[in-house]
Amino acid sequence: MLGIDCQEFESESQQVLGVQGDDFGDGNQQPLEFDGRDLEESDQVFEFESNDRGNDSDQMIEIANSEHLNGLNGDAVTVGNQDNGTEGRSYSPPVVGMEFSSYDEAYNYYNSYSKGLGFAIRVKSSWTKRNSKEKRGAVLCCNCEGFKTLNEASNRRKETRTGCLAMVRLRLVECNRWRVDEVRLQHNHLFDPERAQNSKSHKKIDGGTKRKAEQTIDVEVRTIKLYRTPAADAVGYGSPNERHISEHVNQVTRLNLGYDDAQVLQGYFTQAQLLYPNFFYVMDFSDEGFLRNVFWIDSRSRAAYMYFSDVVAVDTTCLSNKYKIPLVAFLGVNHHGHSILLGCGLLGDESLESYIWLFRAWLTCMLGRPPQTIITNQCSALQSATAEVFPRAHHRLCLPVVIQSVLQNVGELGESVIFQTVLQKAVYNSMKVDEFEMAWDDMINSFGIRDIEFLHTLYKERERWAPVYFKDTLFAGMSISLPGESLCSFFKDDVHRQTSLKEFFKIHDLVLQNSFKKEALADYESKLFTSLLKTKSSYELQLSEIYTKEIFLKFQNEVEMMSSCISVTQTNSNGPCITFLVKERDAVGITRDVKNFEVIYDKNGQEVRCICSCFKFNGFLCRHALSVLSYNDIHEVPGQYILQRWRKDVKRIYKPDLGSNQININNPVQWFDHLHRRVTQVVEEGMPSEGHYMVAWQALKESLDKVRLVAKEAC
Predict the structure, then answer these.
(1) Rounded distance, CA 219 to CA 241, Å?
(2) Quick one: angle between helices 352-365 and 380-389, nearest 10?
């Protein structure tokens, strides 16, 4: 086993490394170019699983200590060379997850960082695509990496190599971006800035590598920058020195936070990371050092997404309405139909770049697993960002928000009860596309509002908000709310326009804990719940034993409403697929008010589909579909229509995915990472009660005794 000191071992363990053990090699190799034959093996060695991106432990804020800027502690450094145009430019230490638009940009970044510390770099190895000169990856290492070979031993030139392990590994990923996949910051030698200044790598630095301040405004942000902040004052909250920067740089996007908010953010994230190792956060800094955007998520919410990743809503109420805290919240629905938090962000503005950064940060945290359906508001930048980051997801607009925007844009007409009724009837009651379009056109003409430009724009986007257009999209009850309802904001009743950041984090934790307690109570009630059956239907009895209490009560209402379905008539047959017409009278029982619902039933697969799409919208079958099943002597709801997300017998363990158990047995860093994550799992599951704690403590104690016994036997 290699001799790795504790400090180095701890730092290395902060990254989930999917590398081979020979990465710790003796360093005798010269810079390599892999030929085509070696490409596949190289790609396997350097390929990182998506769940590596979920590692959060390397996001802890570090505070620079000016007394120890010797390069051994990985603090931010400043390159001050007037000739190359980088005077006073700070370079944060590289971290896993940083991305660059090109290989040259990544090389220049690490080169500039090394120059500020006082060491030089070289390309240890690189590899290209088969039968192509296109570079696929590279390892940049400290110039002191490795040792002299036997052939070089007789060379009288002064020995400069020390076997230093400091390096970064780069890999080409999607969209031609270059990602940092592995980082080692520790050096085993003192720095020699004067010698490094004359190295080949630093002679390559020129003014062209610097990205100007004005360029950062227009260039589309295509990366997630996982920068540690070097100091609280460096993130740009209005310190005296910053008031002297140019007016142009002041216009660069940044969070508009108070002076004390830097310490609030730092304190909250640091404490959360210490208390909950799987807490994840990431900060986005501009090239000038200003904090632009922030994202964070607690470990329980990360785990909840694994169960409820089908539908996610993005709530931008605070940001769009110019609240003091520019909050963006990711929301989901749990097995009780309750709103749950799936992450939070603070954005500097509502630009496309900010939303793309936030979405990519969230997706990285969720192990690259996008939702099936994502619901947003009508902001054009938000919609564009959604299309870019979640191209395969069903993107829909929040229907209640759309209805409210219509009422706000038609003037006094929005106060009219008659207009509201006509609007809601056109939107919610239309079963077919032509019905909706005719109803909308009649409404526009009848109320004389055809010239309102907002309505023209809204109508062009109708396929994203009108229910009739997305009957195949799963919503789990999130978007198709009843008229007058709105998508419930997680912090709706607790955060107001003047809520400060310090107040918000107290509210955040309190609301989150109340949400956990509410879910635990609902779990307990569902377990003990014995429903009072209201009908003799076998469907009601079947699902009373499966669904959680809240979902069953909603389904029970559909079973009760089966009595309003006065007839089921077969209208068409195409092999095993049969079309039925279900006639339903209104709740009052006036026979002349009868609605027709078309239901298609497939005998072979026991598949049933109603034109009302209740199953897609709400996650359970409607009364019309149940009537057709009953008509065909099917006395149980088919399994494909009992969603796992609503079941009360599913044991949901709220811990994030720990990734693969496959590790390289020769890699001590992977040993540490694997053991650390498993111990963290024991700690988290040992917290709910004293009984849990005692079992976890006893297990850890026994494990430690066994490990010490192995160590004694080895001696």
Answers:
(1) 27
(2) 40
Give exposure, 333-360, as e/b (b: 16+ Cβ within 10 Å).
Answer: bbbbbebbbbbbbbbbbbbbbbbbbbbb
Does pLDDT of 515 surpass 60? yes
Q: Which amino acid is at 411?
A: G
CA 170, 175, 177 angle in degrees (round to 5)?
25
Q: Which residues, other chains included, contact 258 with Cβ-Cβ below 8 Å and sequence gap of 6+?
A: 237, 500, 501
Three-class DSSP category at 194:
helix
**Which amino acid appears at position 25 of this protein?**
G
pTM greater than 0.70: no
Sign of the C-alpha dihedral computed for residues 305, 310, 311 and 316 taken in this order? positive
- For residue 373, pLDDT over 90 is answered with yes
Tokens 């298609």 belong to: 600
Q: Which of 40-44, 184-188, 530-534, 599-603 has the lowest mean pLDDT?
A: 40-44
- Give residue-wise pLDDT tens across range 311-347: 999 999 889 888 999 999 999 999 999 999 999 999 9
Query: β-strands 121-128, 32-34: how paired?
Result: parallel
Rounded to an integer, what distance in angstroms lies between the CA atom of residue 278 and that of residue 680?
A: 8
Q: 3-state SS string over 292-333? A: EEEEEECHHHHHHHHHCCCEEEEECHHHHCCCCCCEEEEEEE
Residues in Cβ contact with 146 at an 8 Å cutoff, skipping those fewer than 6 apart: 26, 27, 28, 29, 161, 163
